[in-house]
Predict the 3D structure of the following.
Amino acid sequence: MHPLPTYDDVLAAATRIAPQAHRTPVLRSRLLDERTGAELFFKCENLQRAGAFKFRGAYNALARLSAGQRRAGVVAYSSGNHAQAVALAARLLEIPATIVMPHDAPAAKRAATEGYGGRIVSYDRYTEDREEIGRDLADRHGLTLIPPYDHPDVIAGQGTVAKELLEETGGLDSLFVPLGGGGLLSGTALTVGALAPGCALFGVEPEAGDDARRSLREGRIVHIDAPRTIADGAQTQHLGELTFAILHRAAPTVLTATDVELADAMRAFASVMKLVVEPTGCLGFAAVPHVPERLRGRRVGVILSGGNIDLARYAALLNS
Amino acid sequence: MHPLPTYDDVLAAATRIAPQAHRTPVLRSRLLDERTGAELFFKCENLQRAGAFKFRGAYNALARLSAGQRRAGVVAYSSGNHAQAVALAARLLEIPATIVMPHDAPAAKRAATEGYGGRIVSYDRYTEDREEIGRDLADRHGLTLIPPYDHPDVIAGQGTVAKELLEETGGLDSLFVPLGGGGLLSGTALTVGALAPGCALFGVEPEAGDDARRSLREGRIVHIDAPRTIADGAQTQHLGELTFAILHRAAPTVLTATDVELADAMRAFASVMKLVVEPTGCLGFAAVPHVPERLRGRRVGVILSGGNIDLARYAALLNS
């Protein structure tokens, strides 16, 4: 196992990604404040390059590769946003990229990955093991594997989201974060631990796949079947070794959200905030009403992790 | 006729609305830059309070009323966004508001107007004259009429959009502005004339209702039947006396956009920029490809005027 990243690694990542990553806006909504009773601060990573926070971790990891590793190229496996992020970061750094994607990944995500120049290798997410495919490609072709979450440089890059949010808001009482493999949440935990130790941290995963909640409760990494949920970016089957270790120590509260709650949140973002947020990106806000005691008059951060979704699918969910 | 407002009035309006109006973000998109060849700067008034630039003009006008006028209340006629803007500004200033709205106005706009405490009076936009209804209510109840565009304080308020955009970008080669009754475009013309006289100004109206193009060409206010277009905020039948006088002098280029072009632009904002923009708000960007000679390597501003649209209608247009 790699050594665990620390907040110093988040600081180094912030410097490394600054020339290429957007410092995304923090938006407010008086109407959603009134509905929840909280002062809400939405960190809009749906407005990040390639449409999701994933660009931060991917660019940070790729920027640290040696000249030899860059020449040989990288390989990544992803349900979508990590794929686009690696493909874009690789193009910016002039590194060849191969992406292992599920054959049923949203068409918009596949197209964007190809648009950035990534080579796609498809697999079946319900029967094949993407990690095995990725490792095999890495071994056979000398590629460097860039995992979607369980890598110290990826985690450190994701920790820059909360750094910007805490700097801009000047402090928060609680923070709600989408949770799949734990890359964003563990990076956030490093930053919150350093900058805002009094801030209550909430990770929110799909109800159909609550492996992280069970893992933290049982003190071991629980594996599950790929969950069927509209939150396609959180259809992970288990936490990583690094993300589990960080989260086990940071002990965030893990909440879950149903697909109905995700679609409700998605509609609220569209109608009230005029923002397109993909279902996975709605996880944080969807669970805000679950902890009413944490809201009244409190300063609450919510990370909107991404906005990549096929328009036809988006339209169908708006009507659901 | 009122005296024509000047850029000094825009400056005064900026100070007056600053405590309540958002200074909306200016967003960029590398992908849309690549597609058009220009450096595009999108001024996001869809993220303004009440979801459109209209709040600026309405608040500026209401804030200038005397104590007696405030007590008696105001009346406004509007296809939607001006209604919400007057209702919200009136609530903030504790002024009773009556809103004359077409019976087929989007349900979201009606609901928002009522949510802000406005009293709604309905009319048929194809057979009745909303101005007459508004004037009649004003006469009978001593209300002050706040017209949607043909008022110096409304125009001055709308001019603050371009002021912020020009300040933030440090200058533009051209600027594309949605055009209905001409309030936003004439306010923009005052600001561009003072701050960026070399900036080419484009007003864009629906192809189904090109009364402004004809009016500026013929040198008189041309009246038309209410045009049938998805740009419900630009279904105006004629320019106002003030907006015509300002535009006649400023001589912007008037372009038109079809409903198909508006829907295409709306989908681009959703998929690329993750922004919900109503059809009327897409007018400026929809016409950008019409002037390719103005784009290559140039700094191009685009005002997204609003984001208020029923989600069912929005979903249908995304699928169109």
